[in-house]
Prior knowledge:
By secondary structure, the protein is mainly beta. It contains two helices and 18 strands. A hairpin with a 5-residue loop joins strand 14 (233-234) and strand 15 (240-245). The two termini are 49 Å apart.
Amino acid sequence: xxxxxxxxxxxxxxxxxxxxxxxxxxxxxxxxxxxxxxxxxxxxxxxxxxxxxxxxxxxxxxxxxxxxxxxxxxxxxxxxxxxxxxxxxxxxxxxxxxxxxxxxxxxxxxxxxxxxxxxxxxxxxxxxxxxxxxxxxxxxxxxxxxxxxxxxxxxxxxxxxxxxxxxxxxxxxxxxxxxxxxxxxxxxxxxxxxxxxxxxxxxxxxxxxxxxxxxxxxxxxxxxxxxxxxxxxxxxxxxxxxxxxxxxxxxxxxxxxxxxxxxxxxxxxxxxxxxxxxxxxxxxxxx
Length: 287
């Protein structure tokens, strides 16, 4: 549950701190001043220099002409970082001294015990951005696109808006534990991973691995009439009607043409002559 940010200790090995820095290129070699600029330069050095500037250990003017070079200015800045971490100020970073990740990270799982071996995975982590993961029926993939608006129903039954951030390309078949409504054999059928980003982060800030319900809006219509889906009355020939209750209590059937269905709200768009907003319709099973 702990959030670790740039310049802070992610974990310790043998009592020595491993610090988190931001960057897309992982640490894979010793970073130190070389005999020539070509000895140590590249994307990993550039992201290190950017981090040192952001953290206040390096003046931007010292590296503005060569962000990707590890020179004396970078070495001095590394020493300042090391002094703050209370380790020997060598001015160089060995493999294992730092971890580069794109953003701040939130620890989700500890993969080893305190005092255990550091020869394998130490922890699992995610970004701090709240994301809803949806296992979408693979047959619906063509109907969901990045940017689609969604409604997220939270555990307390409140709702918050969101948008589709990514749609997977490879279908996978999940195996059920036997406690859900999957079909024979425990297979839920092929699904596609869809990531949803809540629009209002404050609404989900207190949630951690919560079960939510997502309604994806693939199409929208405005200024239309809508009735409860249960109010539709099937008629011969595949047509539909709704039973309208007049002011005097009399009932009559009005033929309607269904349009879009709102599965989340349980409503259906209808087109009809003789039907207007505010009229009462019969829903079987309701008083």
